[in-house]
Amino acid sequence: MSSQTRISKAFAEDFSLPLFPASKYVLFSDCHRGVGNANDNFLKNEYLYLAALRYYYRKGFTYIELGDGDELWENRSIQKIKEAHIPSFALLAKFSSHQRFYGVYGNHDHIKKSDRFCEKHLRTYSCSQMCCTYPLFSGAAFHSGIILRDCRQKKDLYLTHCHQADFLNGPLWPLSRFLVRYLWKPLERLGIPDPTSAAKNNRKKKASEKRLLSWAKERQCFLISGHTHHPMMGSAASPYFNTGSCIHPAGITCIEISNRRLALIKWTLDSREDLSLCASREILGEPLCLDDES
Question: Residue 184 has what DSSP assignment?
């Protein structure tokens, strides 16, 4: 099966959400929430993530996670991940409780494809300090892809993780998981990057992005993905976008969809004139107005 066929297959479920002029969506991917140890790359940016989520919750955005939200290759237990990041899951639960949370599974959390896994492990989260259990993603399912249907029938937005464009992390994901869990996880502590990862191997990254751009052009749609950790703002001529990740040392990135405009956003740690620290939101590049595209 070719990469083009695998990407198309991600949307075979045909799960869609409406894209109206008043719609507000924020797209994150590749949080790689871990268990709070030295391998947990999300830990250093969690405060930025919390600040961003509070902002989007207050502004009325719907949160869509485009895969690899939880690091379930290096870690076997989702329970330990939830315990390590209670504030983050508490905020995600608030989105979910108002039907403002939707999820796509990636290669590192491919197990979320299973409704049985979601029912057993993602319905609730617990706070050990309060000895309480709270609803998390009650009734929520994780999809291979989500389509934002444009009410003005211009161009629909196709959302997926896009590991399907990478053979080693697509069809061979069980092998990749084995290598990450038992080989690259201990080597990462020594500063040795995983050469099989599209996020850490520029050659693989560019090859994946070329396939994804080709798929979007052929189908005349906008394709928004994660996986490569390379934030990218597309255009009508180049209709491929990437949300980036939440584990880069320089901050976290996401894509906002509001007032029929797409914007690539970077959240960083900044300081005010009184030297107090704050989370800073910055628009990267020029936003794309959907009404200007055909």
Answer: I
Could you tell me what percentage of the chain is helix, strand and coil, using 3-state DSSP and rounding each to the nearest 5? Answer: 30, 30, 40
Read off the amino acid at residue 108: H
Please state, in angstroms and rounded to a whole number, the distance separating the CA atoms of residues 97 and 77.
24
Q: How confident is the model at residue 180 (pLDDT cuts 50, 70, 90)?
A: confident
Is pLDDT of 130 > 60? no
pTM of the model: 0.91
Single out the residue of 36, 26, 51, 35 nearest to residue 251, CA to CA: 51
DSSP 165: G
- Asked whether residue 57 carries a pLDDT value surpassing 90, the answer given is yes
Domain at 3-288: CATH architecture: 4-Layer Sandwich (3.60)
pLDDT for 7-40, tens place per residue?
999 999 889 999 999 999 999 999 999 999 988 9
In the chain, domain spans: 3-288
Burial 227-247 (b: 16+ CB within 10 A, else e): bbbbbbbbeeeebbbbbbbbb
Q: How confident is the model at residue 194, as a pLDDT?
A: 60
Tokens of 264: 């690539």
Element (H, E) at 96: helix 86-97
Among 212, 214, 211, 254, which residue's Cα sits nearest to residue 231? 254
E strand segments, the chain:
16-19, 24-28, 62-66, 101-104, 124-127, 132-135, 142-143, 145-150, 157-160, 222-225, 240-242, 252-258, 261-271, 277-289
